[in-house]
Amino acid sequence: MKKIVIYPFVVFLFVFFMCPALFADEISNLKKQLGEMQEEMKKQARIMDQMQRKIEMLEIEKNVRAGTLPVAGKTEKGEKSAPEDIRVFWKNGLRFESADKEFTLKAGGRIQVDFAGMREDSEVEEKLGKLKHPAEFRRLRIYGSGTLFGNGVYKAQVDFAGGDVDFRDVYLGLKEIPFLDLIRVGQYTEPFSLEDMTSSNHITFLERSLPYALSIHRNTGIGFNSAHFDERLTLSSAVFYNATISLCPYRMP
């Protein structure tokens, strides 16, 4: 009778003390297996990402060779893209343009250098001294210009010629205004003469003609420009605050 009572008790003690250890080993093994599976899943995810990027690059290369790259404003299926999409291209300068063409930016500039080489006779050198060979940057400019919300215009131009920094054109404006065409406010060239209004990129010589010395050049103000009769007639009028010269001394046109 005593043996019958002792055996179940011994079995109970064995199960009570050994099972938790067995369960702990089982849980540890399961955690280890789970960690290995997670690492394997991460590895497979990285491989899938690499394959996806490779497929995208192959698709782009295929479209480039076929000449069927999607253009700004349209997706591959011909649907309109989002307005915030930006198109970057080159057209007489670097340009940025939103898909809806409400915002544009053109980045540009110019470099114009003036230098001279002189040779003199000995008699002239004796009387006047040895002539120098001067050189200078006449114009060294960068600018950004474009449109805002379709009808708004802007421009900011800086000149580094002469070793310092001067603002040239800095203004905001509205275009396509009835009867007035374009209204601008800021610093820009006063509509004083055609000689002054013509860009230095389009004049015959590096320097302008002598009457240009009478020009008022740039100032800060507000005015309008309009064209009529197929641009055979242009009208300009503006009011300027004659303070730009005192704040930023005139150096070179």
Structure commentary:
By secondary structure, this protein is an alpha+beta fold. It is built from four helices and nine strands. It has a nine-stranded antiparallel beta sheet with strand order 1-2-3-4-5-6-7-8-9, with no helix packed on it. The chain starts with a helix and ends in a 6-residue tail after the last helix. Mean pLDDT is 78; it is low at 69-78 and 244-253.
In short:
With 253 residues, this protein is of the alpha+beta class.
Keywords:
253 residues; alpha+beta; 9 strands; elongated
Query: Tell me about the biggest sheet?
Result: 9 strands, antiparallel
Judged by helices, strands and strand pairing, the structural class is alpha+beta
From the alpha-carbon coordinates, what is the Rg to the nearest angstrom?
Answer: 38 Å
Write down the domain tally.
2
Shape designation: elongated
Helical residues, percent: 25-40%
Q: What is the string of SSEs from the N terminus onward? A: HEEEHEEEEHEEH
The stretches of 5 or more residues where confidence is low (pLDDT under 50) are: 69-78, 244-253
Tell me the span between the first and last alpha carbons. 123 Å
Q: Numbering strands along the chain, what is their spatial order in the largest sheet?
A: 1-2-3-4-5-6-7-8-9
Q: Average pLDDT value?
A: 78
- In total, how many beta strands? 9
Strand share of the residues? 25-35%
Number of helices: 4
